[in-house]
Design goal:
The chain is mainly beta. It is built from 1 helix and 4 strands; from the N terminus they run αββββ. The protein is 9% helix and 43% strand. Strands 1, 2, 3 and 4 form a 4-stranded antiparallel beta sheet that branches. The longest helix has 6 residues. The protein starts with a helix and ends with a strand.
Amino acid sequence: MKLLVQEVATDAQPFLAGDHSFWSRLEARTIRERTFHGDTRGSISIAQSYSTVAWIPEADGSYTISL
């Protein structure tokens, strides 16, 4: 975390982006964190969810650095 903090430019407000997604895991009997998730099309699935926060280093950049 210290290395990431050193790399994030502080001369301007950093732009951070968040995403919450899920992977359908219908047959995974050993994943206890499975929950029910729905998508924008109305379908529902049993899945494992995950979240990502990324730093966008340039206003018009085409890459991100996951935090």
